[in-house]
Protein backbone atom coordinates (compact mmCIF):
# COMPACT_ATOMS: atom_id res chain seq x y z
CA UNK A 1 0.00 0.00 0.00
CA UNK A 2 1.21 3.51 -0.87
CA UNK A 3 2.11 5.74 2.06
CA UNK A 4 -0.37 8.33 0.80
CA UNK A 5 -3.18 5.84 1.22
CA UNK A 6 -1.92 4.93 4.70
CA UNK A 7 -1.87 8.61 5.65
CA UNK A 8 -5.48 8.93 4.52
CA UNK A 9 -6.55 6.08 6.75
CA UNK A 10 -4.52 7.51 9.62
CA UNK A 11 -6.37 10.80 9.35
CA UNK A 12 -9.69 8.99 9.73
CA UNK A 13 -8.41 6.87 12.60
CA UNK A 14 -7.29 10.03 14.41
CA UNK A 15 -10.79 11.46 13.96
CA UNK A 16 -12.25 8.25 15.37
CA UNK A 17 -9.95 8.41 18.41
CA UNK A 18 -10.94 11.98 19.21
CA UNK A 19 -14.65 11.34 18.73
CA UNK A 20 -14.60 8.16 20.82
CA UNK A 21 -12.80 9.79 23.73
CA UNK A 22 -15.04 12.82 23.48
CA UNK A 23 -18.16 10.63 23.33
CA UNK A 24 -17.57 9.09 26.75
CA UNK A 25 -15.49 11.95 28.18
CA UNK A 26 -12.74 9.58 29.22
CA UNK A 27 -9.82 7.67 27.77
CA UNK A 28 -6.35 8.39 26.44
CA UNK A 29 -6.04 10.44 23.25
CA UNK A 30 -2.34 11.40 23.55
CA UNK A 31 -0.64 8.04 23.13
CA UNK A 32 -3.36 6.86 20.75
CA UNK A 33 -2.72 9.73 18.32
CA UNK A 34 1.04 9.25 18.61
CA UNK A 35 0.94 5.57 17.64
CA UNK A 36 -1.66 5.87 14.87
CA UNK A 37 0.77 5.86 11.96
CA UNK A 38 2.41 2.62 13.12
CA UNK A 39 -0.80 0.70 13.72
CA UNK A 40 -2.36 1.75 10.44
CA UNK A 41 0.71 0.60 8.55
CA UNK A 42 0.79 -2.71 10.43
CA UNK A 43 -2.88 -3.59 9.96
CA UNK A 44 -3.40 -2.19 6.46
CA UNK A 45 -0.09 -3.02 4.90
CA UNK A 46 2.66 -4.85 6.74
CA UNK A 47 0.86 -7.60 8.62
CA UNK A 48 -0.32 -10.71 6.88
CA UNK A 49 -3.88 -11.19 8.17
CA UNK A 50 -6.29 -14.06 7.65
CA UNK A 51 -9.06 -13.27 5.16
CA UNK A 52 -11.97 -15.14 3.62
CA UNK A 53 -12.45 -15.77 -0.10
CA UNK A 54 -13.93 -12.31 -0.50
CA UNK A 55 -10.85 -10.73 1.09
CA UNK A 56 -12.57 -9.78 4.35
CA UNK A 57 -10.53 -10.28 7.53
CA UNK A 58 -11.64 -13.17 9.73
CA UNK A 59 -10.76 -13.56 13.38
CA UNK A 60 -9.97 -16.67 15.30
CA UNK A 61 -8.26 -16.69 18.67
CA UNK A 62 -5.32 -18.94 17.73
CA UNK A 63 -4.38 -16.86 14.73
CA UNK A 64 -2.28 -19.63 13.19
CA UNK A 65 -0.59 -18.82 9.90
CA UNK A 66 -1.23 -15.11 10.24
CA UNK A 67 0.71 -12.29 11.87
CA UNK A 68 -0.35 -11.31 15.37
CA UNK A 69 -0.29 -7.96 17.15
CA UNK A 70 -0.28 -7.45 20.92
CA UNK A 71 -0.94 -4.07 22.50
CA UNK A 72 0.88 -3.92 25.81
CA UNK A 73 0.13 -0.24 26.58
CA UNK A 74 -3.58 -0.97 26.69
CA UNK A 75 -4.63 2.57 27.56
CA UNK A 76 -4.32 3.50 23.88
CA UNK A 77 -7.39 1.35 23.27
CA UNK A 78 -9.24 3.91 21.10
CA UNK A 79 -6.50 3.46 18.51
CA UNK A 80 -6.62 -0.32 18.34
CA UNK A 81 -10.44 -0.27 18.29
CA UNK A 82 -10.57 2.21 15.43
CA UNK A 83 -7.93 0.34 13.43
CA UNK A 84 -9.65 -3.02 13.94
CA UNK A 85 -13.04 -1.59 12.96
CA UNK A 86 -11.67 0.24 9.92
CA UNK A 87 -9.87 -2.95 8.85
CA UNK A 88 -13.20 -4.79 8.98
CA UNK A 89 -13.07 -6.87 12.17
CA UNK A 90 -16.29 -5.35 13.51
CA UNK A 91 -18.69 -2.57 12.44
CA UNK A 92 -17.37 0.97 12.80
CA UNK A 93 -20.75 1.92 14.34
CA UNK A 94 -19.65 0.00 17.43
CA UNK A 95 -16.95 2.62 18.04
CA UNK A 96 -19.71 4.85 19.44
CA UNK A 97 -20.10 2.48 22.40
CA UNK A 98 -16.49 2.97 23.60
CA UNK A 99 -16.25 2.85 27.42
CA UNK A 100 -20.04 2.88 27.84
CA UNK A 101 -21.87 0.31 29.89
CA UNK A 102 -22.40 -3.11 28.25
CA UNK A 103 -19.86 -2.34 25.50
CA UNK A 104 -17.38 -4.77 23.99
CA UNK A 105 -15.04 -1.77 23.65
CA UNK A 106 -13.91 -1.76 27.25
CA UNK A 107 -11.72 1.01 28.64
CA UNK A 108 -8.77 -1.28 28.11
CA UNK A 109 -8.82 -4.06 25.48
CA UNK A 110 -9.96 -7.49 26.57
CA UNK A 111 -10.98 -10.78 24.99
CA UNK A 112 -13.49 -11.12 27.87
CA UNK A 113 -16.26 -9.57 25.74
CA UNK A 114 -15.20 -11.50 22.62
CA UNK A 115 -14.17 -8.51 20.57
CA UNK A 116 -12.71 -9.65 17.24
CA UNK A 117 -9.03 -8.78 17.01
CA UNK A 118 -8.20 -8.81 20.74
CA UNK A 119 -6.34 -11.83 22.07
CA UNK A 120 -5.18 -10.70 25.51
CA UNK A 121 -6.28 -8.17 28.10
CA UNK A 122 -3.96 -5.24 28.69
CA UNK A 123 -4.20 -2.10 30.79
CA UNK A 124 -2.07 -3.15 33.70
CA UNK A 125 1.23 -2.16 32.15
CA UNK A 126 4.31 -4.25 31.56
CA UNK A 127 2.74 -7.59 30.66
CA UNK A 128 2.30 -7.55 26.90
CA UNK A 129 5.85 -8.33 25.79
CA UNK A 130 5.84 -11.58 27.77
CA UNK A 131 2.58 -12.64 26.13
CA UNK A 132 3.86 -11.74 22.67
CA UNK A 133 7.01 -13.79 23.24
CA UNK A 134 4.89 -16.76 24.32
CA UNK A 135 2.73 -16.43 21.23
CA UNK A 136 5.86 -16.25 19.06
CA UNK A 137 7.18 -19.44 20.66
CA UNK A 138 3.81 -21.14 20.05
CA UNK A 139 4.17 -20.26 16.39
CA UNK A 140 7.60 -21.83 16.30
CA UNK A 141 6.31 -25.00 17.97
CA UNK A 142 3.55 -25.17 15.35
CA UNK A 143 5.95 -24.63 12.47
CA UNK A 144 4.05 -21.42 11.71
CA UNK A 145 6.29 -18.97 9.85
CA UNK A 146 4.35 -15.79 10.59
CA UNK A 147 5.46 -12.89 12.75
CA UNK A 148 4.37 -11.53 16.12
CA UNK A 149 4.30 -7.76 16.75
CA UNK A 150 4.06 -6.02 20.10
CA UNK A 151 3.82 -2.35 21.11
CA UNK A 152 4.81 -0.92 24.49
CA UNK A 153 5.06 2.57 25.97
CA UNK A 154 8.30 4.22 27.08
CA UNK A 155 6.95 4.87 30.58
CA UNK A 156 5.96 1.23 30.56
CA UNK A 157 9.67 0.40 30.38
CA UNK A 158 9.78 1.23 34.10
CA UNK A 159 8.13 -2.11 34.85
CA UNK A 160 10.45 -4.93 35.91
CA UNK A 161 8.53 -7.57 33.98
CA UNK A 162 9.50 -5.84 30.72
CA UNK A 163 13.13 -6.58 31.52
CA UNK A 164 12.42 -10.18 32.47
CA UNK A 165 10.91 -10.54 29.01
CA UNK A 166 13.78 -8.59 27.47
CA UNK A 167 16.20 -11.12 28.95
CA UNK A 168 14.16 -14.15 27.92
CA UNK A 169 13.55 -13.44 24.24
CA UNK A 170 17.19 -13.34 23.06
CA UNK A 171 18.07 -16.25 25.36
CA UNK A 172 15.42 -18.38 23.67
CA UNK A 173 16.22 -16.96 20.21
CA UNK A 174 12.70 -15.70 19.66
CA UNK A 175 13.52 -14.29 16.22
CA UNK A 176 9.95 -14.18 14.85
CA UNK A 177 9.13 -11.16 16.99
CA UNK A 178 9.19 -7.44 16.20
CA UNK A 179 8.52 -5.27 19.24
CA UNK A 180 8.13 -1.50 19.40
CA UNK A 181 8.60 1.13 22.07
CA UNK A 182 6.58 4.30 21.69
CA UNK A 183 9.30 6.75 22.67
CA UNK A 184 7.20 9.88 23.14
CA UNK A 185 9.19 10.93 26.20
CA UNK A 186 6.04 11.31 28.29
CA UNK A 187 4.16 9.40 30.96
CA UNK A 188 1.45 10.38 33.45
CA UNK A 189 3.45 12.42 35.96
CA UNK A 190 5.49 14.22 33.30
CA UNK A 191 8.45 13.74 30.98
CA UNK A 192 9.94 10.27 31.24
CA UNK A 193 13.34 11.82 31.90
CA UNK A 194 12.00 13.41 35.09
CA UNK A 195 9.69 10.62 36.32
CA UNK A 196 12.08 7.69 35.85
CA UNK A 197 14.78 8.04 33.27
CA UNK A 198 15.07 5.20 30.78
CA UNK A 199 18.50 6.56 29.92
CA UNK A 200 19.65 4.78 26.77
CA UNK A 201 17.01 2.25 25.74
CA UNK A 202 18.91 1.37 22.60
CA UNK A 203 22.03 0.45 24.54
CA UNK A 204 19.99 -1.49 27.11
CA UNK A 205 18.16 -3.65 24.59
CA UNK A 206 21.37 -4.19 22.64
CA UNK A 207 23.08 -5.34 25.81
CA UNK A 208 20.21 -7.75 26.40
CA UNK A 209 20.77 -9.25 22.94
CA UNK A 210 18.12 -7.60 20.78
CA UNK A 211 18.53 -6.39 17.22
CA UNK A 212 17.66 -2.73 17.80
CA UNK A 213 16.47 -0.24 15.18
CA UNK A 214 15.15 3.28 15.34
CA UNK A 215 12.50 5.08 13.37
CA UNK A 216 10.33 8.16 13.26
CA UNK A 217 6.97 6.77 14.32
CA UNK A 218 5.06 9.66 12.85
CA UNK A 219 6.60 9.41 9.39
CA UNK A 220 4.77 6.91 7.17
CA UNK A 221 7.72 6.63 4.79
CA UNK A 222 10.23 5.91 7.55
CA UNK A 223 7.85 3.40 9.16
CA UNK A 224 7.52 1.50 5.90
CA UNK A 225 11.26 1.43 5.24
CA UNK A 226 12.14 0.41 8.78
CA UNK A 227 9.52 -2.34 8.85
CA UNK A 228 10.87 -3.71 5.58
CA UNK A 229 14.37 -3.66 7.03
CA UNK A 230 13.18 -5.37 10.20
CA UNK A 231 11.34 -8.09 8.30
CA UNK A 232 14.55 -8.88 6.44
CA UNK A 233 16.20 -9.52 9.82
CA UNK A 234 13.60 -12.06 10.99
CA UNK A 235 14.78 -15.60 11.53
CA UNK A 236 18.37 -14.63 12.22
CA UNK A 237 18.46 -15.67 15.85
CA UNK A 238 17.54 -12.39 17.60
CA UNK A 239 14.29 -10.65 18.47
CA UNK A 240 13.91 -7.20 16.96
CA UNK A 241 13.18 -4.02 18.88
CA UNK A 242 12.17 -0.84 17.05
CA UNK A 243 12.41 2.26 19.19
CA UNK A 244 10.13 4.75 17.54
CA UNK A 245 10.21 8.42 18.28
CA UNK A 246 6.69 9.84 18.31
CA UNK A 247 4.92 12.93 19.47
CA UNK A 248 2.16 12.36 22.01
CA UNK A 249 -1.00 13.84 20.49
CA UNK A 250 0.47 13.78 16.95
CA UNK A 251 -1.84 15.34 14.37
CA UNK A 252 -3.54 17.83 16.69
CA UNK A 253 -1.39 20.89 17.32
CA UNK A 254 -2.65 21.73 20.80
CA UNK A 255 -2.30 18.15 22.04
CA UNK A 256 1.39 17.89 21.19
CA UNK A 257 4.64 18.57 23.10
CA UNK A 258 3.44 17.73 26.62
CA UNK A 259 1.91 14.91 28.67
CA UNK A 260 -1.22 16.97 29.29
CA UNK A 261 -3.34 14.92 26.89
CA UNK A 262 -2.22 11.51 28.13
CA UNK A 263 -5.61 10.75 29.65
CA UNK A 264 -7.90 13.74 29.17
CA UNK A 265 -10.93 14.00 26.88
CA UNK A 266 -11.50 17.09 24.73
CA UNK A 267 -14.59 19.20 25.37
CA UNK A 268 -16.97 20.16 22.53
CA UNK A 269 -14.94 23.15 21.36
CA UNK A 270 -11.63 21.33 21.60
CA UNK A 271 -13.08 18.46 19.60
CA UNK A 272 -14.15 20.84 16.84
CA UNK A 273 -10.73 22.50 16.81
CA UNK A 274 -9.02 19.12 16.63
CA UNK A 275 -11.26 17.65 13.93
CA UNK A 276 -10.70 20.76 11.80
CA UNK A 277 -7.07 19.64 11.52
CA UNK A 278 -7.87 16.14 10.29
CA UNK A 279 -9.50 15.33 6.98
CA UNK A 280 -12.50 13.00 7.05
CA UNK A 281 -11.29 10.49 4.49
CA UNK A 282 -13.41 7.39 5.03
CA UNK A 283 -16.55 8.83 6.62
CA UNK A 284 -17.01 9.28 10.36
CA UNK A 285 -18.72 6.39 12.17
CA UNK B 1 -36.88 11.40 56.77
CA UNK B 2 -33.17 11.95 56.27
CA UNK B 3 -31.12 10.06 58.84
CA UNK B 4 -27.95 11.82 57.70
CA UNK B 5 -27.41 14.93 55.65
CA UNK B 6 -24.43 16.32 53.78
CA UNK B 7 -23.35 19.63 52.36
CA UNK B 8 -20.72 18.58 49.86
CA UNK B 9 -19.56 15.63 47.87
CA UNK B 10 -15.85 14.88 47.67
CA UNK B 11 -13.67 11.97 46.62
CA UNK B 12 -12.14 9.83 49.35
CA UNK B 13 -8.76 10.01 47.59
CA UNK B 14 -8.76 13.76 48.24
CA UNK B 15 -9.27 12.92 51.92
CA UNK B 16 -6.12 10.83 51.62
CA UNK B 17 -4.32 13.75 49.99
CA UNK B 18 -5.41 16.07 52.79
CA UNK B 19 -4.23 13.56 55.38
CA UNK B 20 -0.86 13.33 53.66
CA UNK B 21 -0.56 17.10 53.56
CA UNK B 22 -1.23 17.16 57.30
CA UNK B 23 1.39 14.45 57.88
CA UNK B 24 3.97 16.35 55.84
CA UNK B 25 3.75 19.10 58.45
CA UNK B 26 3.22 17.04 61.60
CA UNK B 27 5.14 13.79 61.27
CA UNK B 28 8.73 14.03 60.01
CA UNK B 29 9.00 10.22 59.88
CA UNK B 30 6.37 9.84 57.17
CA UNK B 31 7.74 9.36 53.65
CA UNK B 32 5.61 8.90 50.54
CA UNK B 33 6.19 6.88 47.39
CA UNK B 34 4.16 6.85 44.21
CA UNK B 35 4.31 4.92 40.93
CA UNK B 36 3.57 7.59 38.30
CA UNK B 37 0.14 8.55 39.65
CA UNK B 38 0.79 11.64 41.80
CA UNK B 39 -2.29 13.50 40.57
CA UNK B 40 -4.64 10.56 40.97
CA UNK B 41 -3.43 10.00 44.53
CA UNK B 42 -3.69 13.72 45.37
CA UNK B 43 -0.13 13.89 46.65
CA UNK B 44 0.63 17.40 45.42
CA UNK B 45 0.30 18.93 48.90
CA UNK B 46 2.67 16.44 50.51
CA UNK B 47 5.22 16.85 47.74
CA UNK B 48 5.06 20.63 47.87
CA UNK B 49 5.69 20.67 51.63
CA UNK B 50 8.18 17.83 51.80
CA UNK B 51 9.80 17.19 48.42
CA UNK B 52 12.77 15.47 50.08
CA UNK B 53 10.46 12.93 51.68
CA UNK B 54 8.75 11.95 48.43
CA UNK B 55 10.06 9.23 46.11
CA UNK B 56 8.79 8.84 42.56
CA UNK B 57 9.29 5.20 41.57
CA UNK B 58 8.03 5.39 38.02
CA UNK B 59 5.66 2.65 36.88
CA UNK B 60 7.34 0.04 39.04
CA UNK B 61 5.07 -1.08 41.83
CA UNK B 62 7.02 -4.16 42.90
CA UNK B 63 10.10 -2.03 43.36
CA UNK B 64 8.04 0.52 45.29
CA UNK B 65 7.00 -2.09 47.87
CA UNK B 66 10.56 -3.29 48.34
CA UNK B 67 11.92 0.25 48.66
CA UNK B 68 9.23 0.94 51.25
CA UNK B 69 10.20 -2.10 53.29
CA UNK B 70 13.82 -0.93 53.24
CA UNK B 71 12.93 2.61 54.24
CA UNK B 72 11.35 1.39 57.48
CA UNK B 73 14.79 0.43 58.75
CA UNK B 74 15.73 4.03 59.48
CA UNK B 75 12.55 4.46 61.46
CA UNK B 76 10.65 5.98 58.57
CA UNK B 77 6.98 5.32 57.92
CA UNK B 78 6.58 4.74 54.18
CA UNK B 79 3.23 5.36 52.51
CA UNK B 80 3.35 3.39 49.24
CA UNK B 81 0.67 4.69 46.92
CA UNK B 82 -0.91 3.77 43.58
CA UNK B 83 -4.18 2.34 42.22
CA UNK B 84 -5.61 -0.53 44.27
CA UNK B 85 -5.04 -3.15 41.60
CA UNK B 86 -1.38 -2.28 41.12
CA UNK B 87 -0.76 -1.82 44.86
CA UNK B 88 -2.13 -5.20 45.94
CA UNK B 89 -2.74 -7.86 43.30
CA UNK B 90 0.23 -6.94 41.17
CA UNK B 91 2.65 -6.93 44.08
CA UNK B 92 1.14 -9.54 46.33
CA UNK B 93 4.31 -11.50 46.95
CA UNK B 94 6.40 -8.38 47.51
CA UNK B 95 3.90 -7.34 50.19
CA UNK B 96 3.72 -10.83 51.56
CA UNK B 97 7.45 -11.41 51.93
CA UNK B 98 9.06 -7.98 52.34
CA UNK B 99 6.28 -6.31 54.32
CA UNK B 100 3.87 -8.67 56.08
CA UNK B 101 6.09 -11.65 56.84
CA UNK B 102 8.98 -9.33 57.66
CA UNK B 103 6.75 -7.29 59.94
CA UNK B 104 7.55 -3.94 58.34
CA UNK B 105 5.74 -0.74 59.16
CA UNK B 106 4.59 0.02 55.61
CA UNK B 107 1.29 1.72 54.79
CA UNK B 108 -0.07 0.57 51.44
CA UNK B 109 -2.51 3.27 50.40
CA UNK B 110 -4.53 2.74 47.28
CA UNK B 111 -7.05 4.72 45.31
CA UNK B 112 -9.43 3.63 42.53
CA UNK B 113 -10.59 0.54 44.41
CA UNK B 114 -13.73 -1.21 43.24
CA UNK B 115 -16.17 -0.58 40.40
CA UNK B 116 -16.57 3.15 40.93
CA UNK B 117 -13.43 4.12 39.05
CA UNK B 118 -15.81 3.71 36.14
CA UNK B 119 -14.74 3.87 32.52
CA UNK B 120 -11.24 2.39 32.78
CA UNK B 121 -12.93 -0.98 33.23
CA UNK B 122 -12.08 -4.35 34.75
CA UNK B 123 -8.30 -4.27 34.33
CA UNK B 124 -8.25 -1.46 36.89
CA UNK B 125 -11.35 -2.32 38.96
CA UNK B 126 -9.93 -4.65 41.56
CA UNK B 127 -12.66 -6.35 43.61
CA UNK B 128 -10.35 -8.81 45.34
CA UNK B 129 -7.99 -6.51 47.22
CA UNK B 130 -9.66 -6.69 50.63
CA UNK B 131 -9.45 -10.46 50.44
CA UNK B 132 -5.83 -10.49 49.30
CA UNK B 133 -4.74 -8.13 52.05
CA UNK B 134 -6.81 -9.53 54.90
CA UNK B 135 -5.46 -13.01 54.24
CA UNK B 136 -1.98 -11.81 55.13
CA UNK B 137 -1.24 -12.44 58.80
CA UNK B 138 -0.81 -9.20 60.71
CA UNK B 139 -2.15 -6.92 57.98
CA UNK B 140 -4.65 -4.24 59.03
CA UNK B 141 -7.30 -3.51 56.36
CA UNK B 142 -9.18 -0.20 56.35
CA UNK B 143 -11.84 1.04 53.90
CA UNK B 144 -13.15 4.44 55.06
CA UNK B 145 -16.50 5.79 53.87
CA UNK B 146 -16.01 9.46 53.02
CA UNK B 147 -13.54 12.31 52.68
CA UNK B 148 -13.36 13.19 56.38
CA UNK B 149 -12.96 9.62 57.52
CA UNK B 150 -10.29 8.89 54.90
CA UNK B 151 -8.33 11.91 56.04
CA UNK B 152 -8.60 10.84 59.68
CA UNK B 153 -7.59 7.25 58.87
CA UNK B 154 -4.60 8.44 56.84
CA UNK B 155 -3.34 10.40 59.82
CA UNK B 156 -4.16 7.71 62.39
CA UNK B 157 -2.32 4.84 60.74
CA UNK B 158 0.98 6.71 61.11
CA UNK B 159 0.66 6.17 64.85
CA UNK B 160 0.00 2.46 64.49
CA UNK B 161 3.12 0.28 64.27
CA UNK B 162 2.68 -2.39 61.60
CA UNK B 163 1.57 -3.00 58.02
CA UNK B 164 -1.69 -1.42 56.93
CA UNK B 165 -3.74 -1.54 53.75
CA UNK B 166 -5.80 1.65 53.32
CA UNK B 167 -8.31 1.50 50.47
CA UNK B 168 -10.21 4.42 48.95
CA UNK B 169 -11.76 5.53 45.68
CA UNK B 170 -12.13 7.87 42.78
CA UNK B 171 -15.70 9.25 42.63
CA UNK B 172 -17.12 12.11 44.64
CA UNK B 173 -19.46 10.87 47.36
CA UNK B 174 -21.38 12.61 50.18
CA UNK B 175 -19.26 13.88 53.07
CA UNK B 176 -21.38 13.01 56.09
CA UNK B 177 -19.00 12.10 58.91
CA UNK B 178 -17.55 14.80 61.20
CA UNK B 179 -14.59 16.92 60.23
CA UNK B 180 -11.49 16.33 62.33
CA UNK B 181 -12.88 13.10 63.78
CA UNK B 182 -10.57 10.82 65.68
CA UNK B 183 -10.07 7.56 63.83
CA UNK B 184 -9.78 4.42 65.91
CA UNK B 185 -8.52 1.37 64.02
CA UNK B 186 -10.83 -1.60 64.53
CA UNK B 187 -13.64 0.34 66.22
CA UNK B 188 -16.90 0.02 64.30
CA UNK B 189 -19.21 3.02 64.32
CA UNK B 190 -22.93 2.68 64.93
CA UNK B 191 -24.57 5.18 62.62
CA UNK B 192 -28.24 4.24 62.84
CA UNK B 193 -29.88 2.35 65.70
CA UNK B 194 -32.42 -0.30 64.83
CA UNK B 195 -33.91 -3.58 66.01
CA UNK B 196 -35.07 -5.44 62.89
CA UNK B 197 -31.97 -6.01 60.78
CA UNK B 198 -28.27 -5.20 61.02
CA UNK B 199 -26.55 -3.67 57.99
CA UNK B 200 -22.77 -3.83 58.13
CA UNK B 201 -21.28 -1.64 55.44
CA UNK B 202 -17.81 -0.53 54.45
CA UNK B 203 -16.39 2.19 52.16
CA UNK B 204 -18.68 3.74 49.56
CA UNK B 205 -21.47 1.38 50.59
CA UNK B 206 -21.89 3.04 54.00
CA UNK B 207 -23.76 5.96 52.46
CA UNK B 208 -25.88 3.52 50.45
CA UNK B 209 -26.65 1.63 53.67
CA UNK B 210 -27.90 4.83 55.28
CA UNK B 211 -30.13 5.47 52.27
CA UNK B 212 -31.36 1.90 52.53
CA UNK B 213 -32.16 2.39 56.23
CA UNK B 214 -34.24 5.44 55.33
CA UNK B 215 -36.16 3.50 52.70
CA UNK B 216 -36.69 0.62 55.11
CA UNK B 217 -37.95 3.01 57.79
CA UNK B 218 -40.65 4.14 55.38
CA UNK B 219 -41.75 0.52 55.25
CA UNK B 220 -41.76 0.40 59.06
CA UNK B 221 -38.52 -1.58 59.27
CA UNK B 222 -35.90 -0.39 61.73
CA UNK B 223 -32.46 -1.17 60.36
CA UNK B 224 -29.29 -0.76 62.37
CA UNK B 225 -26.41 0.58 60.27
CA UNK B 226 -22.83 0.03 61.36
CA UNK B 227 -19.84 1.50 59.57
CA UNK B 228 -17.17 -1.21 59.46
CA UNK B 229 -14.31 1.00 58.32
CA UNK B 230 -11.82 -1.57 59.56
CA UNK B 231 -12.28 -5.02 58.05
CA UNK B 232 -9.29 -6.39 59.90
CA UNK B 233 -9.19 -6.47 62.85
CA UNK B 234 -12.96 -6.85 62.77
CA UNK B 235 -14.97 -5.31 65.61
CA UNK B 236 -16.69 -8.56 66.51
CA UNK B 237 -18.05 -7.16 69.78
CA UNK B 238 -20.05 -4.50 67.99
CA UNK B 239 -21.26 -6.98 65.38
CA UNK B 240 -22.28 -9.57 67.95
CA UNK B 241 -24.14 -7.03 70.08
CA UNK B 242 -26.11 -5.85 67.07
CA UNK B 243 -27.06 -9.22 65.60
CA UNK B 244 -28.11 -10.49 69.02
CA UNK B 245 -30.59 -7.65 69.00
CA UNK B 246 -31.76 -7.85 65.37
CA UNK B 247 -31.37 -11.55 64.61
CA UNK B 248 -30.24 -11.08 61.01
CA UNK B 249 -27.53 -9.29 59.04
CA UNK B 250 -26.70 -7.87 55.62
CA UNK B 251 -23.14 -6.94 54.66
CA UNK B 252 -22.47 -4.36 51.94
CA UNK B 253 -19.19 -3.67 50.18
CA UNK B 254 -17.66 -2.74 46.84
CA UNK B 255 -15.84 -6.05 46.57
CA UNK B 256 -16.34 -9.69 45.67
CA UNK B 257 -18.38 -11.80 48.04
CA UNK B 258 -15.31 -14.00 48.17
CA UNK B 259 -12.73 -12.54 50.48
CA UNK B 260 -14.65 -9.46 51.48
CA UNK B 261 -16.14 -8.02 54.65
CA UNK B 262 -19.08 -10.41 54.22
CA UNK B 263 -17.02 -13.53 54.49
CA UNK B 264 -15.14 -12.26 57.56
CA UNK B 265 -18.49 -11.61 59.25
CA UNK B 266 -19.91 -14.96 58.09
CA UNK B 267 -16.90 -16.82 59.42
CA UNK B 268 -17.18 -15.14 62.80
CA UNK B 269 -20.92 -15.63 63.10
CA UNK B 270 -20.79 -19.25 61.90
CA UNK B 271 -18.40 -20.05 64.72
CA UNK B 272 -19.94 -17.92 67.44
CA UNK B 273 -23.52 -17.00 66.74
CA UNK B 274 -25.07 -18.51 63.59
CA UNK B 275 -27.36 -15.87 62.11
CA UNK B 276 -29.31 -15.55 58.82
CA UNK B 277 -27.15 -13.44 56.53
CA UNK B 278 -27.25 -11.88 53.06
CA UNK B 279 -24.44 -10.31 51.05
CA UNK B 280 -24.34 -7.17 48.94
CA UNK B 281 -21.26 -7.30 46.76
CA UNK B 282 -20.04 -8.57 43.43
CA UNK B 283 -20.82 -12.24 42.96
CA UNK B 284 -17.82 -13.84 41.29
CA UNK B 285 -17.51 -11.63 38.23
CA UNK B 286 -15.16 -9.00 36.86
CA UNK B 287 -16.33 -5.42 36.52
CA UNK B 288 -16.61 -3.45 33.29
CA UNK B 289 -16.53 0.06 31.84
CA UNK B 290 -19.37 2.46 32.56
CA UNK B 291 -20.38 5.37 34.73
CA UNK B 292 -20.00 4.63 38.45
CA UNK B 293 -23.72 4.87 39.27
CA UNK B 294 -24.65 2.66 36.29
CA UNK B 295 -22.17 0.04 37.41
CA UNK B 296 -23.32 0.10 41.02
CA UNK B 297 -26.85 -0.48 39.81
CA UNK B 298 -25.96 -3.21 37.33
CA UNK B 299 -23.90 -5.12 39.90
CA UNK B 300 -26.41 -4.62 42.71
CA UNK B 301 -24.29 -2.43 44.96
CA UNK B 302 -26.67 0.40 45.83
CA UNK B 303 -29.31 1.27 48.42
CA UNK B 304 -32.05 -0.57 46.53
CA UNK B 305 -30.01 -3.75 46.54
CA UNK B 306 -29.42 -3.41 50.28
CA UNK B 307 -33.16 -2.91 50.89
CA UNK B 308 -34.00 -6.03 48.89
CA UNK B 309 -31.44 -8.12 50.78
CA UNK B 310 -32.62 -6.73 54.13
CA UNK B 311 -36.19 -7.77 53.40
CA UNK B 312 -35.06 -11.17 52.24
CA UNK B 313 -32.88 -11.83 55.30
CA UNK B 314 -35.63 -10.75 57.70
CA UNK B 315 -37.91 -13.40 56.17
CA UNK B 316 -35.28 -16.00 57.05
CA UNK B 317 -35.23 -15.21 60.78
C1 LIG C 1 0.90 -1.54 36.23
C2 LIG C 1 0.33 -0.19 35.95
N1 LIG C 1 0.70 0.84 36.74
C3 LIG C 1 0.17 2.06 36.53
C4 LIG C 1 -0.74 2.26 35.53
C5 LIG C 1 -1.36 3.63 35.33
N2 LIG C 1 -0.90 4.19 34.06
C6 LIG C 1 -1.63 4.13 32.94
S1 LIG C 1 -0.86 4.80 31.60
C7 LIG C 1 0.48 5.23 32.56
C8 LIG C 1 1.64 5.94 31.92
C9 LIG C 1 2.21 5.13 30.82
O1 LIG C 1 3.27 5.79 30.22
P1 LIG C 1 3.70 5.36 28.76
O2 LIG C 1 3.91 3.89 28.71
O3 LIG C 1 4.85 6.20 28.37
O4 LIG C 1 2.42 5.68 27.87
P2 LIG C 1 2.00 7.14 27.31
O5 LIG C 1 1.60 7.97 28.48
O6 LIG C 1 3.17 7.69 26.59
O7 LIG C 1 0.85 6.85 26.40
C10 LIG C 1 0.30 4.83 33.89
C11 LIG C 1 1.25 5.07 34.97
C12 LIG C 1 -1.10 1.15 34.74
N3 LIG C 1 -2.01 1.26 33.77
N4 LIG C 1 -0.54 -0.05 34.97
MG1 LIG D 1 5.18 7.55 26.91
Describe the protein's topology.
The complex is a heterodimer of chains A (285) and B (317).
Chain A: H1 3-24, H2 29-34, H3 36-46, E1 68-71, H4 77-87, H5 128-141, E2 148-153, H6 160-171, E3 177-183, E4 186-187, E5 190-191, H7 192-195, H8 201-208, E6 211-216, H9 220-232, E7 240-245, H10 268-275
Chain B: E1 9-11, H1 12-26, E2 30-34, H2 38-41, H3 44-49, E3 54-56, H4 61-71, E4 77-83, H5 84-87, H6 92-101, E5 107-111, H7 129-134, E6 140-142, H8 147-156, E7 164-167, E8 172-174, E9 189-192, E10 197-201, H9 205-218, E11 223-227, E12 230-232, H10 236-246, E13 249-256, H11 261-272, E14 277-282, H12 292-298, H13 303-315
Parallel strand pairs in B: 2-3, 2-4, 4-5, 5-7, 6-7, 10-11, 10-13, 13-14
Antiparallel strand pairs in B: 1-8, 6-12, 9-11
Helix pairs in contact in B: 1-8, 4-6, 9-13
The complex binds thiamine diphosphate and magnesium ion (MG).
Amino acid sequence: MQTQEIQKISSQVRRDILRMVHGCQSGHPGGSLGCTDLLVDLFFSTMNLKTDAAGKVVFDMDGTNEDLFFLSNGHISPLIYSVLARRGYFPTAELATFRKIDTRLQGHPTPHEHLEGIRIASGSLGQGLSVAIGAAQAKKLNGDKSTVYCLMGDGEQNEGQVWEAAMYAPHHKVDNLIAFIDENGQQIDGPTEKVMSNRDLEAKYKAFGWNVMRMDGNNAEDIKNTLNKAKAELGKGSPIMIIMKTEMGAGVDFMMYSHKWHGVAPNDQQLQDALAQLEETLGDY
Amino acid sequence: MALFTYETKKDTRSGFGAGMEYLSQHNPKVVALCADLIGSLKLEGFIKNSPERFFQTGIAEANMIGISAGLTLGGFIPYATTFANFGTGRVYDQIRQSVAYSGKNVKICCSHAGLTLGEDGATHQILEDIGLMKMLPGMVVINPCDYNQTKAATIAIADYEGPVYLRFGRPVVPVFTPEDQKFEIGKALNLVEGTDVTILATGHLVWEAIQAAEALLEKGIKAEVINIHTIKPLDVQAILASVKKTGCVVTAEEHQYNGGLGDSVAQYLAMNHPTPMEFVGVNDSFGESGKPAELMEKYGLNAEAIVAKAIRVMARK
